[in-house]
Amino acid sequence: MAKPAKLNRMPGAKTRWDELVGLHQIMALQIHSTGTFLPFHRYLLHAQQFLLSECGYTGPLPYWDETKDAGKFSSSPVFDATLGFGGDGKGSGNCVTNGPFANYSVGIGPGFKSTARCVNRKITNAMSYSVGASYVAAALNYTTYEKAWVAMYNGPHLMGHIALSMMVRCCCGYPFRDDIDTDRAVERRLHHVVRRPALLLTSRLRG
Questions:
Q1: Which of 58, 84, 124, 149 is most buried, by CB atoms within 10 Å?
Q2: Domain 16-206 is classified in which CATH homologous superfamily?
Q3: Does this model's pTM top 0.85?
Q4: What is the pLDDT of residues 42-53, one digit of tens each?
Q5: Helix, strand, or coil here: 96?
Q6: Lowest-pLDDT range, 11-25, 81-95, 144-158, 192-206?
Q7: What whole-number distance in Å separates Cα of residue 167 and Cα of residue 181?
Q8: Is the peptide bond before 110 cis (omega within 30 degrees of 0)?
Q9: pLDDT level of residue 12 (50, 70, 90 thresholds)
Q10: Rounded to whole angstroms, how far apart are CA atoms 168 and 43?
Q11: What string of DSSP letters covers 15-34?
């Protein structure tokens, strides 16, 4: 996340990580609510794994089984202040105040903008129930790819984002999730790694 940007084509990107987030931001309207949703995010994870190799990391991508934390995201080890990514956001800006991203500044987003701000997070446990195993199984129970990806997108995927409100934007005085630049948050990449098995299963439905 500290390695300088190379492409110099992504607005607001200062690091290699910014460039990866910037790609997700620029392509947002083409890679969500369309059939390319699952394949693109798998490709993005492949790109991330390649970039990690530039830093000398050759291991597998970390995996968060969200189904085990459904309904109780706030108590997940993923958000431990010492071993995880820090806890819930605080204050009017919902800024993360502990863990590795405390006092960390980001420049991509909100939405399609490029504005410097803190890493923010707003966990809503009630929303995370929809990432449970039964919801994932129901989405993958469809016999066509078209129905399966829509169910996965509108169910476990979207609710996972909403449950964390990553990164938080405000509308009419209320916080809501910003899924255009949410890939700025490392834990959301873990969320997308969870979708890799979904892609493998739904790709078989293409027949």
A1: 149
A2: Di-copper center containing domain from catechol oxidase (1.10.1280.10)
A3: no
A4: 888 889 899 999
A5: strand
A6: 192-206
A7: 7
A8: yes
A9: confident
A10: 25
A11: BHHHHHHHHHHHTHHHHSSS
Cβ distance 109 to 25 under 8 Å? yes
Pick from 107, 110, 109, 88: which is nearest to 98 by CA? 88
**Hey, what are 5's tokens?**
């940007």
* Low-confidence winner among 70-79, 125-134, 144-153, 197-206 (lowest mean pLDDT): 197-206
- The neighbouring-strand residues paired with 194 are none
Query: What residues contact residue 110 under an 8 Å CB cut-off, 6+ apart?
Result: 117, 167, 169, 178, 180, 181
How far is the CA of 5 from the CAs of 76, 136, 195, in angstroms?
A: 32, 36, 27
Residues 88 and 123 sit within 8 Å (Cβ to Cβ):
yes
Greatest pairwise CA separation for the chain in angstroms: 50
